[in-house]
Amino acid sequence: MTDSTTQATLGRRLMARLDEAARHSQPGPGVTRLFCSDEHRAVLEPIADWMRQAGLTPELDASGNLVGRNAQAMAGEKTLILGSHQDTVAEGGKYDGMLGVALPLQALQALKETGIELPYGVEVVAFGDEEGTRFQSTLIGSRALAGTFDLASLEARDAEGVSLGEALEAFGGNPQKIPHLARRPESVIGFVEVHIEQGPVLEQRDQAVGVVTALTGIERHRMCVRGRAGHAGTTPMPGRRDALVGAAEMVMEADRILNATQDFVGVVGKLEVRPNAVNVIPAEVNFTLELRSPDAAVREQGRKVILDACQRLAQARGLELSSELTYQAEAVACAEWLIEALESACEACGEPAERMFSGAGHDGLAMHDLTDIGMLFVRCKDGLSHHPDEAIILEDADRATRVLMRFLTHLGSQARSRS
């Protein structure tokens, strides 16, 4: 199972599957695959096939997740949940999310091919939505399993005015049955996700994998700046109520505050101008503000400072400013027993794996409400993610798959001791 030929085979198979999944994308740079899109529908076919090859039975659930279960899970035995998300940001990479779907399926298939049967239930989930790119409502699939999905979010609409509920129904889901997807905590061993690091730490350490200790807290706001439109040539500069100039000042002030605050990061990632005409003073600007910190107090204080500063800037220019909290998730810790189990698997495979914090949010933020979570990071080139050039190397694909195989085969005794 651990000879170099097998390792190379595992890596080649995994990289080929990731390439195959990446072909299901909107035209343009990188990978763009949105929740309940044609591309989402298309990528489920190869994923379902990978599940069957791993000895799992695939099923599309009411929330748009594709779930593969082994025989023990289908019989109601206590189950380990593995997986990640299939969706991407606009013009993203081929590994963010999809690695955590394809890699555990590859590991399970390799164990099956060597005659190893795991003594517990296994589910691998390709979560429908984690990024929130289409509906600005993240962790839809993982919240459904955790039993924390808010049915009010079904009213969220995309840029074309399609609601989340409408999109799910057209996709083959069943919005009203989402509450029935909630797993019973006593039926779950834990949740483990494999993910690219999305940062430079592993590359700086020259390590293929890392064991995650906690996931960052995140909040997102929708900001709306309203001014007054006017002719760009005939309206004097003094006294203009230019919403874009005001919004630009707010963006710069937020950036200044973020840079001056330790353990606090954020971004204005989306900005819309109305009427967006070359010779008209902007009347309205909508922009997003995302804030992250492992320390809730730092994030809450930073948010207050930024929002207060934005209000002062708006008043100084005669603008109206409104803000709406659209998403919030507190930082969560990984379970110590899963951290240690992943560390032991790394050690057994000869892979140094220091503990590390995740500055990104993942499906574990939602799954933590259901069960213990664990996470294995895989090195990515230049620490780059959410970008067409996002990349991992074949050797690291080998190593991470081998680590997860070791983790799975040695989890049985730990799982029984926790029953």
UniProtKB/TrEMBL annotation:
Residues given in the record as Zn(2+) 2 binding sites:
96, 131, 386
Q: Which domain of life is it from?
A: Bacteria
GO: which molecular function terms? hydrolase activity, acting on carbon-nitrogen (but not peptide) bonds, in linear amidines; metal ion binding
Alphabetized Gene3D superfamilies for the sequence? 3.30.70.360, Zn peptidases
**Binding of Zn(2+) 1: at which residues?**
85, 96, 195
Give the required cofactors: Zn(2+); Mn(2+)
Extract the InterPro entries matched here: Amidase_Cbmase, Bact_exopeptidase_dim_dom, Peptidase_M20
- Protein's UniProt keywords contain Manganese: yes
Task: Please share the entry's free-text remark on the cofactor.
Answer: Binds 2 Zn(2+) ions per subunit.
Q: Does the keyword RNA-binding apply?
A: no
Q: Could you tell me which Pfam families the record lists for this protein?
A: Peptidase_M20 (PF01546)
Q: Which residues bind allantoate?
A: 220, 279, 292
Listed transmembrane segments: none
Name the UniProt key words of this record, in alphabetical order.
Hydrolase, Manganese, Metal-binding, Zinc
The entry's family comment says: Belongs to the peptidase M20 family.
Matching entries from NCBIfam families are given as:
hydantase (TIGR01879), PRK09290.2-5 (NF006775)
Subunit structure of this entry? Homodimer.
Task: State the protein's name.
Answer: Allantoate amidohydrolase
What is the native source organism of this protein?
A: Billgrantia pellis
